[in-house]
Structure prediction request, 162 residues.
Amino acid sequence: MEARLRALLPGGTFSGVAAERSRRMAAVRGKGNYTTEVRARAMLVAAGFRGWCMHPTDVDGRPDFYFPLERLAIFIDGCFWHGCPRCGHVPKTNSVFWAAKIARNRARDRNVVRALRRQDIAVLRIWEHDARDPAWVHQVGAIRCAPARRGGSPRRTARSQA
Ligand SMILES: [Zn+2]
Prediction:
């Protein structure tokens, strides 16, 4: 944990949080959780999509799914970590710390979207709560079926409904 965020915790630690909860929070990765991702992956496979990869290190933000030919990056955003307006909440304990951390994640999300759009890569961000319903996969199909974006055609960023 970086110093700037740690400074927001009383005594610089999670002393006020039960150890079990602290461990559990630490175990959840910043980008959605494992189960959501595995399920989302299964939905893409079931819908017949091919040619994508996961967490490519050479694409900004390391999207959860990336279609190199279509230049489409998909992020499944964890509702807690990315501050979902519907189900995100700031824990009462160490709320200043969590609010800062979530705000930082959201700022980073915006920067990643900007960077990808500059590279003419379409971005689809799906809230974790929407990713549970296979309907989000239709959005992938709609973007992939659209005309190629190379050569100055409109850039898009889609976001699932909150
Ligand atoms: Zn949500």
Observations:
- The pocket of zinc ion is lined by residues 79, 84, 86-87, 127-129 (CB under 6 Å).
- The chain is about 40% helix and 10% strand.
- The longest strand covers residues 72-77.
- Helices lie at 3-6, 19-27, 34-46, 95-118, 128-131, 136-145.
